[in-house]
Amino acid sequence: MMQGTLPSWKRGALATALFCVSLGANAALFEDDEARRAILDLRQRVEAQRVQTEQRLTDENAQLRRSLLDLQTQIEAMRGDLARMTGQNEQLTRTVSEVQQRQTDVDERLRKTEPSKITVDGREFTADPREKAEFDAALGVFRSGQFPQAQTAFADFVKRYPQSGYNASALFWLGNAQYATRNYNEAIANFRSMLSLAPDHAKAPEAVLSIANCQIELKDTRAARRTLEDLTKAYPQSEAAQAGRERLSRLK
After folding, report:
1. Contact between residue 250 and residue 214 where contact means Cβ atoms under 8 Å apart
2. CATH number of the domain within which 212 lies
3. How many domains does the chain have?
């Protein structure tokens, strides 16, 4: 055997060892490739999942923005509807107020033209507003001391409203206005008309006393005495009768 030449069994062992080393290297290389492929695959899956997640989030965000936009549109529409309803309610309120005011105006006009119940000197009757206004105006003139004007106002009233429930009172005040202006005969005539029209009038005793006063002013003492006697008999409990008794005691 030549020096440096390995025996056959050694060469076999060496070859086996080299094969194993080569096999191990190949195995390690295989394992590295598999690991890299696994890592790459994992990265791809992760990236795909990331892209998918981002896409989903993008889609969801877009859907959310659309939903928010739709909601905002609905809110604006509701605000518009509310504004219109508020405007309609305000208009309706104004319309109702105007109708009520017109009704009030109509009622007021009707009250100014329709007859109503009046109570004067304890007597109740129906009178229209103009009739009442004219009587009140005439009475106001009398109470202000404008007796000639009051005489004209009451005389005109009696002519204008011959059937008025105010007439007895109007004749009484007419007689007083005439007494104040020294139209004694006319005053007596109107006081007697008043007594003939309403002998039970609250101012009837005063009217009788006023007749007596007119007769005294006319120097007709005998007639005045008879009138005062009639007064005390017809209305004995009245204040006018008490004044008549005192006046009668002073007459000669």
Report:
1. no
2. 1.25.40.10
3. 2
| Residue 137 counted as domain residue | yes
204-217 vs 184-197: helix axis angle to the nearest 10? Answer: 160
Whether 90 is in a domain gets the answer yes
Question: Token pair 């009757």 is at which residue?
Answer: 125
Integer CA distances (angstroms), 216 to 120, 121, 209, 213, in order:
29, 27, 11, 5
Q: Containing domain of residue 87, as a range?
A: 10-114
Task: Read off the pLDDT of each residue in 15-24 and give the average, rounded to a whole number.
Answer: 61
120 lies in some domain: yes
Q: Please indicate, yes or no, whether residues 210 and 130 belong to a single structural domain of this protein.
A: yes
Q: Residue 227 and residue 220: Cα distance in Å, rounded?
A: 11
Q: pLDDT (tens digit, 9 = 90+) per residue, 44-103?
A: 887 887 778 778 777 787 887 788 777 778 888 888 887 887 887 787 678 767 766 766
Write out the DSSP string of the chain. --TTPPPHHHHHHHHHHHHHHHHHHHHHHHHHHHHHHHHHHHHHHHHHHHHHHHHHHHHHHHHHHHHHHHHHHHHHHHHHHHHHHHHHHHHHHHHHHHHHHHHHHHHHHHHHHS-EEEEETTEEEEE-HHHHHHHHHHHHHHHTT-HHHHHHHHHHHHHH-TT-TTHHHHHHHHHHHHHHTT-HHHHHHHHHHHHHH-TT-TTHHHHHHHHHHHHHHTT-HHHHHHHHHHHHHHSTTSHHHHHHHHHHHH--
Do 110 and 183 have their domain in common? no
Instruction: Examine residue 3 and state whether it is found in any structural domain, yes or no.
Output: no
Indicate whether this model's pTM tops 0.90: no
